[in-house]
Amino acid sequence: MVIIRSVCSTTDHELTRQFLLSFPVRENGFYRPGSEPGREFDITTKTGFSEFIMDAVAQKDKGRERAMNVAPQTYFWFIEKGEFVGVGKVRHYLDFRWLNRGGHIAYAVAPKFRNKGIATDATRQMIEYARNHLEQDKLLITIRKDNPEECRKVALANGFILDEDWSVSREIAEKKGIILPEGYNGDDEIDYYWL
Which domain holds residue 40? Predict the structure, then answer.
């Protein structure tokens, strides 16, 4: 079984830094933690990785993040049998950028551990975290249309439903006060799944 642990609980910084560096900066729309637009850190250095960890801890202060125009997010390591196997993030709220591309929950599993149910199990645990710690009545996962089919299976296995005509997304945007461009109906390259 996969266990998820907060990045803030990291004690072996060098091991976790090397694990993060094993991921590409961007793959299938997932930005490696520390490389997201607006929150870039040079995690190839120990100093940059320490700054990333300090930023992850500081994200608990939502007011600070809103002022910086960067949605706070909680990062998680996925661990199986004592080994790092993946990384995930739960965004605390959506703005237009994350409604359009990214959603509340994002993850990446190291290539040698893919297609073993890790993403499904870790996503279930991140859903539990979001439900217990965030004030969100609905959760969004966005999946690029050119992503592997496995990504859709993870969303569906966790109860997410495809928003085919963007009606749920539009309704959520209106409730949350997210301003959409006139006639906007989502990104044609993205599928939107809501829980």
Answer: 3-194
Q: At 170, which CATH number?
A: 3.40.630.30
Query: Do residues 110 and 88 make contact, with C-beta atoms less than 8 angstroms apart?
Result: no
Six-digit token string for 22: 């094993």
Distant-in-sequence, close-in-space partners of 98: CB < 8 Å, separation ≥ 6: 71, 91, 104, 140
Q: What is the mean pLDDT of the chain?
A: 83
Tokens for 54, please give them.
Answer: 């300090």
Number of CB atoms found within 10 A of residue 149's CB: 7
Residue 73 CA: distances (Å) to CA of 76, 115, 122, 127, 142 = 10, 26, 16, 13, 16
Contacts of 35 (CB under 8 A, 6+ apart): 25, 26, 41, 43
In the block, tokens 């199986």 appear at 80
Dihedral pair phi/psi, residue 93, rounded to 5°: -160, 170
pLDDT digits (tens, 9 = 90+) for 104-160: 999 989 888 989 999 999 999 999 999 988 877 789 999 988 888 888 888 998 999
Q: pLDDT tens across 28-49, in order?
A: 777 777 777 777 788 888 888 8
| Cα 161 from chain centroid (whole Å) | 18
Q: Which of 97, 85, 93 is nearest to 38 (CA)?
A: 97
Q: How many domains does the chain have?
A: 1
Residues 6+ apart with CB under 8 A from 132: none
Whole-model pTM: value is: 0.82
